[in-house]
Amino acid sequence: xxxxxxxxxxxxxxxxxxxxxxxxxxxxxxxxxxxxxxxxxxxxxxxxxxxxxxxxxxxxxxxxxxxxxxxxxxxxxxxxxxxxxxxxxxxxxxxxxxxxxxxxxxxxxxxxxxxxxxxxxxxxxxxxxxxxxxxxxxxxxxxxxxxxxxxxxxxxxxxxxxxxxxxxxxxxxxxxxxxxxxxxxxxxxxxxxxxxxxxxxxxxxxxxxxxxxxxxxxxxxxxxxxx
Length: 227
What we know:
CATH superfamily of the largest domain: RNA polymerase sigma factor, region 2, helix turn helix motif
Distance between the termini: 50 Å
CATH architecture of the largest domain: Orthogonal Bundle
Strand content: under 5%
């Protein structure tokens, strides 16, 4: 269990987190859209031990530990946020908000094993908050090259572009939680047992939402006559 911080210590940590992000500049210029790397290594005891050390040092305000956590998780989080916002600049801003929330709330984490799910829950909730504020705005579609759909080959071919566009539209049309489960499972590669605590639902609900999401996507692609 991670130790709690006094109000005075928490205020000091918040200041150090803010200063640290200014110094880091979030390295956003180096963040690129790419297939997500597998960051879930909690089955490896050594990795969990290393992560626990980084978390404790970050709670103490150690800049190098915060940067190590950022370097490890910024790309998959950015990709997830980008797929919600369809806007690189907005995604970069939200990514900063997400990491500030992570580091200022890190003392609330009770088990290292839940860190990844806890972190993604913050990211998803931040995206939902943004979408609620910008409801009604037209969203651009996003190329989901990480989705294992069998779409490949020369992306310059019109048929491939049409299929990817149709897939994008189908995913963007999914209701909030359904889309979240689809992105976390089929794009990010999380298991239902990991998704459930992120979203505060049961494993069965996660599976059901994924099934419904896939069926809706299939129906939309049929409507577009691409399958």
